[in-house]
Amino acid sequence: MFIFKLIPVLFIILGAVGVFFPRISWYMGVGWQFKNAEPSTAALISARIGGIFAIVAGVFLLTSGIFPG
Prior knowledge:
74% of the residues lie in helices and 0% in strands. The chain has three helices and no strands.
């Protein structure tokens, strides 16, 4: 089924956004809730680390065969 291939690909894409564009990842997560706010260094680092985990999880789900299809 198509959805079982789409979920890991979304993990990889969103993880790549977190790694390469942490400000966009921060804004999508919490930044939209505040007016004229800037992310801290810790928030940017955690966005990158979370992006790495998302990419690893997406690759694992795509290659492991857990999902049917």
